[in-house]
């Protein structure tokens, strides 16, 4: 259930995600002429520290996060006049917004780079070879048999299993001309998909068009040239980002159970499972988590990047920063919300893994 592999993989994955996120803040701050005083992976007591120039680079004992401390990022801090040009809060609003957005942006960029690379290296995909055929299905009635290879549908070449599913959905309930290969011979079949009402991952109704077949399981590696992989990587990043945002909104609306919220134990468990299935799976898991981390950090909750973003947008509108008192109250509310969410996620983890059902 929970192993040393899970724990080690979790720590490594989290360190990479946090490192990329904080590096985004760090590098954009440096580009904006802001002095970075501390770059830390983890919270709490430091277990490693090295100062290079004005910046202290450290690894801290609690691996559940990290931080970048910049000169003058505390509104209560007194900054000498000669150092204000390099302090964070003395910068124009546009620079402060750029620094805040950089962390989540680098998480999304990291996911894109991973997807891009994976599409170039190659992904295992299912061949369009029929395995099981359901009784009384459209495929059975049309004469489709196990081990038939689908070559085309309505003149469109089929090279992988997913293309069968997407073509059926695209064409709706129309009668479709299939060209298949059976024992070296090519045959033409007409198949009319059957309609099935279902629900998607968010519980919303959707219409499926099915012919009642399952894949045989044969796989091959599909690789793409750099430009095609670039486009596919961008599309996958956008799709996963939208999926995450919609999922979170559905959960806020109560359309998805909050029992789906998981904490570090669940993440570690999944990380261990992905590690056992190979490096490619770990990379894809990191990409998905990176998108999730970037989106969550953009939530308009004080102490998160999104909360700071709201503060600076308000500052840009009214022409002055919010008062220290208002910011402190907002930070306390934000801290309460985040701690409550973490406690709830940890509770879900315990119930999920340590309490046996029934």
How is this structure best summarized?
This protein is α+β, with helices and mostly antiparallel strands and 358 residues long. It contains 9 helices and 12 strands.
Q: Features of this protein?
A:
single chain, alpha+beta, Pdz3 Domain, four-stranded antiparallel β-sheet, two-stranded antiparallel sheet, 9 helices, 12 strands, elongated
Question: Secondary structure elements and their pairing?
Answer:
Elements (H helix, E strand, L loop, with lengths): L3 H28 L4 E17 L2 E16 L22 H29 L1 E4 L3 E4 L4 H5 L6 E5 L2 E2 L3 H11 L4 E7 L2 E7 L2 E6 L5 E6 L2 E3 L3 E4 L3 H27 L11 H13 L2 H19 L7 H14 L5 H31 L4
Antiparallel strand pairs: 1-2, 3-12, 4-11, 5-6, 5-7, 7-8, 9-10
Helix pairs in contact: 1-2, 1-6, 1-7, 2-5, 2-7, 2-8, 5-7, 6-7
**Mean pLDDT score, rounded?**
85
The biggest beta sheet, please? 4 strands, antiparallel
Radius of gyration: 26 Å
Structural class: alpha+beta
β-strand percent reads 15-25%
Instruction: Provide the succession of SSEs.
Output: HEEHEEHEEHEEEEEEHHHHH
Main location: membrane
Transmembrane segments: 6-28, 97-119, 279-299, 306-323, 329-347
Organism: hydrothermal vent metagenome
GO cellular component, one term: membrane
């Amino acid at each position: 259930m929970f192993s040393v592999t899970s724990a080690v993989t979790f720590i490594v994955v989290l360190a990479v995600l946090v490192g990329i996120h904080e590096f985004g803040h760090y590098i954009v701050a440096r580009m904006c002429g802001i002095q970075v005083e501390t770059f830390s992976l983890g919270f709490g007591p430091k277990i490693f520290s090295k100062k290079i120039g004005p910046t202290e680079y450290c690894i801290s004992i609690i691996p559940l996060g990290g931080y970048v401390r910049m000169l003058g990022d505390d509104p209560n801090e007194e900054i000498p006049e000669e150092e204000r040009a390099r302090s964070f809060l003395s910068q124009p609003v546009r620079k402060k917004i750029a620094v805040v957005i950089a962390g989540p942006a680098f998480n999304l960029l990291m996911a894109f780079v991973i997807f891009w690379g994976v599409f170039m290296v190659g992904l295992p995909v299912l061949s369009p070879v029929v395995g099981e055929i359901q009784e009384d299905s459209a495929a059975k009635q049309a004469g489709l048999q196990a081990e038939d290879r689908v070559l085309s549908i309505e003149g469109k070449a089929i090279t992988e299993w997913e293309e069968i599913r997407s073509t059926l959905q695209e064409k709706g309930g129309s009668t479709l001309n299939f060209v298949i290969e059976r024992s070296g011979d090519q045959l033409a079949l007409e198949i009319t998909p059957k309609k099935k009402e279902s629900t998607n991952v968010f519980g919303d109704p959707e219409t499926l068009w099915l012919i009642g077949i399952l894949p045989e399981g044969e796989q091959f590696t599909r690789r793409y040239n750099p430009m095609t992989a670039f486009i596919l990587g961008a599309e996958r990043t956008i799709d996963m980002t939208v999926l995450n945002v919609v999922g979170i909104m559905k959960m806020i609306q109560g359309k998805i159970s909050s029992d789906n919220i998981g904490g570090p134990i669940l993440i570690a468990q999944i990380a261990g499972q992905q590690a056992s299935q190979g490096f490619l799976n770990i990379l894809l898991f990191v990409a998905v988590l990176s998108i999730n981390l970037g989106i969550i950090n953009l939530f308009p909750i004080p102490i998160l990047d999104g909360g700071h973003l709201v503060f600076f947008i308000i500052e840009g509108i009214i022409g002055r920063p919010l008062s220290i008192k208002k910011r402190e109250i907002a930070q306390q509310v934000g801290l309460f919300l985040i701690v409550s969410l973490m406690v709830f996620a940890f509770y879900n983890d315990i119930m999920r893994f340590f309490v046996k059902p029934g």
